[in-house]
Structure of Amidase domain-containing protein:
Amino acid sequence: METASGDYGAFMEKFTLPPKSAQDLPLNSLTFAIKEIFDVEGYVTGMGNPDWARTHPVATSTAPTVLALLGAGATCVGKTVMDEMAYSINGENIHYGTPRNPCAPDRVPGGSSSGSAVAVGAKLVDFSLGTDTGGSVRVPASYCGIFGFRPSHGAISVSGVIPMAQSFDTVGWFARDPMILSKVGGIIVQLPDIAPVRPSCFIIAEDCFQLSVIPYDVVTQPVVKAVEKLYGGDVLKQEILGDYVKTNVPSLKHFMSKETTDQIYNIPSLSALSSAMRLLQRYEFKNNHGEWITAVKPDFGPGISERVLDALRTTGENIDTCYSVKRELHDALAALLGVFLLFDSRGMHTDHRFWCSHDPHSSRASPKTTNKFV
């Protein structure tokens, strides 16, 4: 193992996985790095913690997403530092060091895919892979001044990726160049070549923007003007997202409280949604890793240890309600935004909704039109 001390502290270890040799492949000559949560045959997948690496064998196969990128002509140059167990959003690691933010050296890089974001931001690779459970691609991308893409849950295979909380885990990616971001997405999402479609509606979540310290008009007007120029003002729609969620996700009432309802800078239904998400995340993390943690008693850094302890204390109370909230929210957003169904080789449909840190639009589309949620 080659442990990297330089290179902005982004790399856990460096190696070379060569691509296919054809010169006309879409990612030919591009390099990439992967978060230390992806399996690579012959290497231990360490998940950001030395005790995990010490107690787990080398991987016997490589994650399909990594193989797809190699097959498209890209070269993998190593694994990157991550927050332990993917259980933080800061990007710090007490064992391996915190990758240095190339955009703001005096600030944290954001996590948990910190090394992958830093490797791209520091121009060490052309793109990189991370995972996003609760913001772990979107946050470090925004902190490091690069593009980060978080696809819909289930749009990309998580095979060969250690789970954190499978109800929310997604594979995401980073790039500095939007064209490279798009090319990588085309490979790993396996999207067919389709002509651009005209949006039928741009939905602005008015109440969410009102929470910002930046005046509402300052934030939204550039988007509004761009949409009006490209598609006309008739496609713009305002939505009070909190009210919509409260009305259409009835199981959420179990997580509503007087405390969240009375807060001034708060949207009660979305706060309740966050509470349900965190409970389900803790529950699934415990089911995935609780037995190993109890047996090994690993050394976790500050912040991580407290979150892990909270997860180990989680019971099954209200978990069925969490899953009901998840299903109801999915159906509610599908109704709001429309449906975009792609069919895989087995004839199964795959639901696609994408989030991008630089361009925070979400889309659900029919074959002819698409809605954008700003």
